[in-house]
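Thread: quick sanity check before group meeting

JM: Hey all, I'm pulling together slides for Thursday and realized we never actually wrote out the predicted structure for the chain we discussed last week. Dropping the sequence here so it's in one place. If anyone has concerns about the input, flag it before I start.
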Amino acid sequence: MFAEEKPSLLPLPLEPFRYYQYGERIVHLDGCVEVEAAYYGLPPGWIGRSVKVQWDALHVRILHPGTNQLLREHIRQKRGWYRIKSEDNPKKMPFSTAQLLRRAGHAGTQIGILCVAIYQRQGEAGIRRILGILSLPGNMARQLSKMPALRPSRSVCRSIASCAVIWSAAHN
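JM (edit): ok, ran it. Output follows.
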């Protein structure tokens, strides 16, 4: 039987078959969809709409709901992290973001510097972190605002906890 089938057999592919998980997601106000607690950006104009998503251990693919056409493909991120392509960020800072950064500046010089650095590095995806910093308890925010000036590379926090670590390192 094998001798009959042998001429019809093809070589195995070099890459193993990938198993994907599938789902449908609503695009959040920040222009991202959530997959296993990580966030992935889409092109502008998709906020509030439903999209199809497929993912495996390496990639996340976001598909058009009607045509199944690939909208974006991202490398998987750690929980809580964002992946947004630079061309998907707005060309001009939204007015609400400018207001938020002004508010951060009024909270204290160093808080303002910290929040601007977060925005410069992460764009609109960093807004949640900026809001988190601005909602710190009063005593922690006052201490953070008194910290010595930091180089921009050190001032970018991944979480409120890391802001506290940066603050404590600056005071030790």
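AS: nice. Helices lie at 2-5, 95-107, 109-122, 127-134, 138-146, 160-170. Confidence is low (pLDDT under 50) at residues 149-161, 167-172.
JM: adding both to the slides.
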